[in-house]
Amino acid sequence: IKFYENRTMIMAGWGIQRAHHGEQAHWMIVTLCAMLGQIGLAGGGFGFSYHYANGGAPTCAGGVIGGMNAASVGVVKDGKFLGLAQDQKQGGEAAQAWLVNTAKVAFPLARIADVLLNPGKTIDANGAKITYPQIDFIYWVGGNPIVHHQDTNTNIKAWRKPRTIVVNEIYWTPTAKMADIVFPTTTEYERNDITMSGDYSNMHIIPMKQVVAKQHGAKDDYQIFTDLCKAYADGLAEVYTDGGKTEMDWIKEFYEGAASAVNANTALGIQMPSFEQWWEKNEPTEFYETPESAAYVTFEDFRNDPVLEALGTPSGLIEIYSDTIAAMNYKDCGAHPMWFEPVEWLGMKEKPAKFHLLSLHPLDRLHSQQSNTSNRKRYAVADREPVLINTEDAKELGIKQGDLVRVYNARGEILAGANVSSDIMRGVVQIFEGAWYDPNAEGLCKNGNPNVLTIDLPTSELANGNISHTALVNIELYKHKAGEDIKLTAFMPPKGAK
């Protein structure tokens, strides 16, 4: 099939950019589609997010729930909250300088380990210079960074640098085990909430009712932050809670904001009930696509009138060659898409290892979520995270289905269960990301987290993304060393925990 003789849509996910110089792949896809001349035509062009949050589905017409506003930096003196830093009515007090500076600092997320290890270092990023701050305190809510960040051994060193690390957590994740303070927080089953389905489509507003009592002293994140405000300064909790609102006050406010907009628009043909009725019924409110959204074609307006419907680029056009990027004069990202040699790849002259490692998103969990549940029984091999290896490669290495294998390179080593298949090409192995990091005394991850093997370098000075799909590894049948402890402890609480 010839692309140029047929209406062609090139669809790509985000994973291909998570490689050394990964931004080049997406840029080249756009360039190819521009050369085909089908951008702005139905069924033609390109798209990059059809896999996520209803991406690609027509946008529905309806209401959108709001959220809490981010407050400005507050002023506290002698244990009392005096007001926000911008509020000159509060005695003219200025916020503490370190609070203001911290609030203004931003850096690429994938550089977090580099930031912690090298405060004061200056890097290039998207045409700007960024100087890393000194981070002495981390409060992490909603994540498992010890598991998801590349080059785990370097990341562990970085997480030992701050004086204090606090996390809100449901389970004893690897990150919680490495924190100084852990606030036990509730699951979605233990609290009331409200959400929408489909970030791109806005299809539903959904009530999320508490179904079980809070377990083992756990509190909602909202209550934890409220309690911290009360402990920190008199009057601060009143501001944080917007005058003492409860969780249900916020949920009702979010719902009623969306309902008011929907009920005022008679063209939608939808009437949302009162909050009390909606909450009692406990069913999602569904919105529907319009004829316009169903027929929407990306970039059609631009194609029909590139002057009045200009794009958000400096030229208003699709930029195959970028004067803006050219002016940045980066060695690892040119003014147009091109091939750069990755730091590790199968075609290099002196390979440090034999196999290319892919660490895809899991099929049976979301990142590291549910790694500690009975769901693991469905996919674990040899009671470890599975590694997919080609049948012929496995035969040469003397590896059979279900064998316990060691996957390693100069950065680290892990144990995994061999999943032998012809569904993967020779010279490539695959281990899903998200397995909970579980090191023994020698640093071997007993549970098969591939980020022990990946590289902590940026995609380029332009984007500074992660390069988790750029890594070479070796694999061999595991040979147990005398006295080596390989018993899984990833899902056990730390010593002293109740």
Tell me about this structure.
Helices cover 22% and strands 18% of the residues. With 498 residues, it is an alpha/beta fold. It folds into three domains: 3-58 and 296-328, no CATH class; 108-288, Rossmann fold (3-Layer(aba) Sandwich); 355-477, Barwin-like endoglucanases (Beta Barrel). The strands form seven sheets. The protein has a six-stranded mixed beta barrel. A three-stranded parallel sheet has the order 8-9-10, with no helix packed on it. Strands 11-12-13 form a three-stranded antiparallel sheet, with helices on one face. The protein starts with 8 loop residues before the first strand and ends in a 21-residue tail after the last strand. The model is unreliable at 88-95 (pLDDT under 50).
